[in-house]
Structures are given as structure tokens and as C-alpha cells.
Specification:
- The protein has 142 residues and is mainly beta.
- The chain is built from two helices and ten strands, in the order βαββββββββαβ.
């Protein structure tokens, strides 16, 4: 895409349509793609926002064989599992997930948790790759 064809340099999550994730492990979450190859012609990065509902909203444990991921917590509280370690996360926290590393996340408490996520090195989920992996029991709840 030529630079002159890019018309969207500022993206607002609240006016971006929900991603259609019907039939996936993320269908119950509010996920919106904010920056991607399809949207702005990005070549090396993808950015999205996910809202986890309060009361323990989560998604399946997975990895991306071809992308790093950075998660930035905007509001709410939760946990993020990277490999076999769990971390309590809250507003302002940044989580780094190396390439090909299993990870998952979820909210804790009644408040929804809002995160921004960045896939590094790829402009789309398809290019990042996605593999569901078995999860070890014991998700923290408080």
C-alpha cells in the first residue's frame, strides 16, 4: 500500500468495530484490531484492544510461533501467565511475551480489564501464527 493510500493514522478503539471471532476461543471477548496490514498497510506490527469481562473473563492458553507480544494494561486487574509463571497485573503494567512462548490472561474481580496488545514483527494474526496449548490448572483468582 502506498503511503498516500493510508488514510487512517489515528484509530479510536471505541469507534472501531468488534473483530468477528465467532467459533474461536476469543468469541466471548470484546476484541478490536486497531493497527494491521489490512487496516493501515502496516508491515511489521499489529495492535489491538481486548476487554475481559469482570468476574474472571479469560481466554485459552496459546502461543504465536512467529511474533513477540507486548500487553499493556489500561484498566482493571487480572493475571497474565507467561510460560509457567503467573503475574498479577493492573493499570500501567506491561507484559512481554517472547516468540513461541505459551501465554494466557484473565480478569480478577468484578471490574472488566482492558488491555492493549502489540504483536511485533508481523502485521496480522495470520502472520503471527496461533497454536492452542494445554494449560496447567491453577489459575489465580485473587
Amino acid at each position: 500500500m502506498a503511503e498516500s493510500d493510508r488514510t487512517e493514522y489515528v484509530t479510536r478503539a471505541d469507534s472501531t468495530p468488534l473483530d468477528d471471532l465467532t467459533g474461536t476461543a476469543f468469541a466471548h471477548l470484546d476484541v478490536r484490531t486497531l493497527v494491521s496490514d489490512a487496516r493501515q498497510g502496516s508491515e511489521k506490527v499489529m495492535v489491538g484492544r481486548t476487554v475481559y469481562p469482570g468476574g474472571g473473563g479469560t481466554h485459552e492458553h496459546h502461543l504465536h510461533p512467529d511474533a513477540e507480544e507486548v500487553v499493556i494494561v489500561m484498566s482493571g486487574r487480572g493475571w497474565h501467565r507467561v510460560g509457567d509463571k503467573y503475574y498479577a497485573i493492573g493499570p500501567g503494567d506491561v507484559v512481554f511475551v517472547p516468540v513461541n512462548t505459551a501465554h494466557s490472561a484473565g480478569s480478577i474481580g468484578p471490574e472488566e480489564m482492558v488491555i492493549l496488545w502489540v504483536l511485533g514483527g508481523v502485521p496480522s494474526l495470520e502472520r503471527a501464527g496461533y497454536q492452542s496449548v494445554p494449560e496447567i490448572p491453577g489459575i489465580p483468582t485473587g
